[in-house]
Amino acid sequence: MTDGKPRVSNGSMVDPLQITRRELLGRSATGIGTAALAGLLARDGWAAPPSHSQLGLPGVPHIAPKAKHVIYLFQNGAPTHVDLFDYKPELSKLHGQPVPEQYVGDKRFSTMTGSAKGKLMLAPVEPFHQRGESGAWVSDLLPYTAQIADKLCFVKSMHTEAVNHAPAISFLLSGAQIPGRPTLGAWLSYGLGSEADNLPAFVVMTSISKGTTCGQIFYDFYWGSGFLPSRFQGVKFRGSGDPVLYVSNPDGVTREMRRGWLDDIARLNALKLRDTGDPEIATRIAQYEMAFKMQASVPELADLSQETQETLDLYGPQVLEAGTYAHNCLLARRLVERGVRSVQLMHAGWDQHNSLTTELYTQCRDTDQASAALVLDLERRGLLDETLVVWGGEFGRTPFIQGDINNRPRWGRDHHPYTFTIWMAGGGVKPGTTYGQSDDLAINVASDDVHVHDLQATILHLLGIDHERLTFRFQGREFRLTDIHGHVVHDVIA
Prior knowledge:
CATH architecture: 3-Layer(aba) Sandwich
Number of helices: 14
CATH topology: Alkaline Phosphatase, subunit A
CATH class: Alpha Beta
Structural class: alpha/beta
Largest sheet: 9 strands, mixed
Shape: globular
Distance between the termini: 67 Å
Radius of gyration: 25 Å
Oligomer: single chain
């Protein structure tokens, strides 16, 4: 504005009364504010080309990684540790008797339980047996997992701080009960980048057993990027139709036409990025380019026709049914085979408040064989050593009953955050081991407790990341996945 009249970028004059407030603010921002923003972006690395997201951060990994990829088999709704992995003979002896008060005290449970005082103890619904050379206790509900017990590292002393599903899942995956923080996969994408040039660094798939009444909602913040640029968030693959929306071109649109459009859009976005320095515009450029590449890579990924019958049989009868847990497990193997950094499978239905004797069996049938098959398939392809597999939910289930103990078809267990079990395989963890233990009623941690932040720190460590050094400055503070907590559990590392 040299003569008192505003001009647009090509030098032509425009009537001041015709300028919108948005245009005025946008043009005002291109002065000294842009210079300051450019300095901040350069300092934090966001002024780099979009392709930088494939490379990760300078100096990362901090240590020699034992794993390159992670597959998180997240069991939404909280599997019952006392019926699957944490065998307690004393629990059977006390079946039908009130829970000893000294075990629960003033502990907080969900509003469905309220006070645990007077609740009756409930024995496991199926027998346990020791498995393999390691002697790990696994329920008869999980015969396929039992067969690979010597390949697994069980952690039986997990505990968390949340008593309800969404806050507990958010806490385990992002380090905070309130949504808005970056999730594990987003942090890994931010720090390590990806080995895949034509697939996202972080892929999410969801499933639920047919006919279950234990449905859990899959909130997008379970795989969100929080305050990190949105290019680091998880890309959700759908369970029906095209795995990714609009991955197929409309009728009459060729790949060459699409390429030309994207090139033109990229040039327009680059001009806006130059003017504003907004990192989300860089994200848009990168994501358009990734989407174009995925139009070729995703159909090939989803085509299982080249898999042998032996492999399909390994994963079970549901493997060819898109959207099932078994199908997603096979896709997870194919994703890490192609360099994807982080795969998050989420299977809902474990919330058995009144369906232990019905829907627990369904959940185990739909997930047991495929979970074990994934470990075996990775191993025989030479991928298990570099792929960390984690199986578990957001908390456990109460060793005491929810419901009427005289009505077996309606037996249930409530949420239990004070101790629960997960297992890990591959990726540098010790196979055939059990770490930590709960007390003789599986109510509290008895030794070697592992907090949620400890698990997060350990997963990052296995992928070569010092959890205290992978940070992002937001609102004047350096944030990290483990907040201000967390210790690596070195005893589970091979």
